[in-house]
Amino acid sequence: MRFLTLVLLFLTGQPQLVEYAIPTPNANPHCLVAAPDGGIWFVEFSGDKLGRLDPVSGKFSEWPVPTAGAHPHGVTVASDGRVYFTEQAGNKIGSFDPQTERFTEYPVPSAEAGPHTPIQGPDGAIWFTEQRGNRIGRLDRVTGQITEYPVPTPRANAYGIISAPGERAVYFGELEGHKLGRVDVASKRITEFQPPTPQSGVRRLAIDRQGGIWMTYFSAGKVARFDPATRTFKEYDAPGGKDGGPYSIEVDSTGHVWFNEFAKNNLVELDPATGKMTTYAIPSGPALVRKLTVDARNTVWYANFGQSKIGKVVRP
């Protein structure tokens, strides 16, 4: 596989996508995140496991989560190396210590909240969205206490979330509220911003080195950048059109923006300086990709939910 990939890179000069099959059949990896040590952590929605891929050896490690039927959903790595993940059906936030290989779970106070995506905020706490509870949650990593903050728009379907350290804030997407939300971590005040495109379906978020907030418009077939200084949006039409379903989004170290089109089974690379977009077909499908991540070496990784694989973009 590696030899074939190198040959293709030499012949085409274009990035190639390589995938690794997860040992557990029908694992359905939902989200993944690159750790500072290079490891790729992911959660198995149907396998009810936490997993790690060593990108050097290609070896997988898997650990069953304590709560049966938890449906782990989102995952992040905190500054101390602990891995935090949401249990959408278990209605908990899980924590895993890679050193001791021990789990800790924290029940979400609101019943059937549907905890969705976690990140570490500028204050060191774990912030997360509640898809069904229509709240933003905050887990104090020291005390284990969870506090919840209602989203102003009813039935907004709080989805992706990203930390904005320069602003001491976290931003979140409203898939059905069709807005971008912001939480000031000091005051806990929530502000919402309306994109220019109506019925946009703001899904997942990313942040660039200038502090700009990137987002996918799942329902409108676009990606956009929000400038916190001017509070304005700049929108880009995705190549797949209105029904392409832009889903996850990340920014690499060169400033290029990567997103996937759920209905088109591809990845798209956007150069914001020129507006040029390049499309790469995912080799197996339907992949139903829910999350991308970029590691310290600027490699783009994705979770192939549909085929239970972890994939990466190999550059020439």
Write up this protein.
The model is unreliable at 1-8 (pLDDT under 50). This protein has a single domain (2-314), classed as 7 Propeller (Methylamine Dehydrogenase, Chain H). The protein is 3% helix and 49% strand. It has one helix at 2-12, and strands at residues 16-21, 29-34, 40-44, 49-53, 60-64, 72-77, 83-87, 92-97, 102-107, 115-120, 126-130, 135-139, 146-150, 158-164, 169-174, 179-184, 190-193, 202-207, 213-217, 222-227, 232-237, 246-251, 257-261, 266-271, 276-281, 292-294, 300-304, 309-314. The chain starts with a helix and ends with a strand. Strands 1-28-27-26 form a four-stranded antiparallel beta sheet.
Relevant terms:
single chain, 316 residues, mainly beta, Methylamine Dehydrogenase, Chain H, four-stranded antiparallel β-sheet, 28 strands, globular, disordered N terminus
Distance between the ends: 15 Å
**Rg estimate, integer Å:** 18 Å
Highest-level CATH class: Mainly Beta
Largest sheet: 4 strands, antiparallel
Helix vs. strand class? mainly beta
| Total separate domains | 1
- Strands in their spatial order, largest beta sheet: 1-28-27-26
Unreliable stretches (pLDDT < 50, length at least 5) are: 1-8
Let me know the average pLDDT. Answer: 96
